[in-house]
Amino acid sequence: MSDSLLCLGLDPDGAVDAAGAERVCHVLLDAALEHVCAVKPNLAFFEQYGSSGYAVLERLRAAIPPDRLLILDAKRGDMGNTAAAYARALFDVLGADAVTVNPLLGGDSVAPFLARPGRGAFILTRTSNPGAEDFLDQPAGRDGQVLYQRIVDQAQEWDSGGGAIGFVVGATVPTAIAEVRRRVPSAPLLLPGVGAQGGPLEAAVAAGLDSTRAGVVVPVSRGIAGAAQGPAAAARELRERIAAVRAAG
Amino acid sequence: MSDSLLCLGLDPDGAVDAAGAERVCHVLLDAALEHVCAVKPNLAFFEQYGSSGYAVLERLRAAIPPDRLLILDAKRGDMGNTAAAYARALFDVLGADAVTVNPLLGGDSVAPFLARPGRGAFILTRTSNPGAEDFLDQPAGRDGQVLYQRIVDQAQEWDSGGGAIGFVVGATVPTAIAEVRRRVPSAPLLLPGVGAQGGPLEAAVAAGLDSTRAGVVVPVSRGIAGAAQGPAAAARELRERIAAVRAAG
Asked: Which entry of B34, B54, B63, B75 is annotated as an active-site residue?
């Protein structure tokens, strides 16, 4: 759906085993795929089922049409040659179009994820969890920046032109989204935290839209999987609410 | 080996497939196990072989005697409920005694790894890679600290008494090891970066030893697997060099 900015988050928690998790994923894909531009499995919820869960991830690629992005939420961050092995796992083995990356270890830890033409990496900036205040919101460097702002500025220097660079900003803090958008006028922003985490959908999207009224992807997991009205109706409603924000610009 | 502070790093890169990686691991375990106190697989080098590689990790636990620690080098870092799923994967499915954790996302991202009695988490501080200069070495907070120092101070407040807390400090920067040791007189320190990365073994160990001339674990991967004299002789020599530093105190 090129006109949707909604992303289906797949966090199959609470299944009895990997087969149960896989069934949950397919139920959600069947219900929500027509309303989303991307699908974002978080690897933790598959790895908790061991190699059987990892095998579910291997099979997911085939269930996602080529006109939807597969964003693997892995938040890997390790040094150079190790990051290259993670990039092989995520891009080559699991077939990701894009991945999330933890930038704490700096340039060489991110480089392998930005070296793939046609693929992309979303760098973590200001996340939606309480612990984001511990380091990401703290002063960093000597010029009044806080750490998440410094990450955005530094990451632009890593942009090699090989793959696409984007940024993750929690929907719970629209002011941070606006701050990141000001620094990167045209980079795609991934805005998790809507729904169960309480992020305000409309304010987050409005803060993140670029000059073409696009440039954001809004992943929702529990807000679709656990919705009282069912996942298809929930996804349709979320998609329409995002569209209304775009139209109001 | 309770008198050894050497740890066998398992980074089976360059094998043709997961079965080849598993064979490499067992050759190294057979050669080096008698000289080490712990074994540290880095998950990236298994995940690059997909679910078959993850299954190798599942089987490794059985090859490691109960008197050696299994330290899973996963560097996971995700928010609360997701971190809990990673903790289940690493502790319950893969049987880790300890794990490495990326603290960028703050307290709730680390808490599930510190909640297990009898298990432990090593928090990343100043890593051994070039990119550590990008953020970890930069001023953080308002009191002249740099980020890796702030991480150490903050992490001590997270220590719940449930599981053991330790810290990862790259062996390439002995001054950082001494700085961390000054802040945490009795926490175990994991000191990667000896060997292929050029960290000075003797200086790193001397900087990290606690008041009982223990409290450090020195993982070596390529310096054992790729040693000209073979892995058994390399592990013996490394163990003896570490023991000489302890005896010189």
From this structure: B75
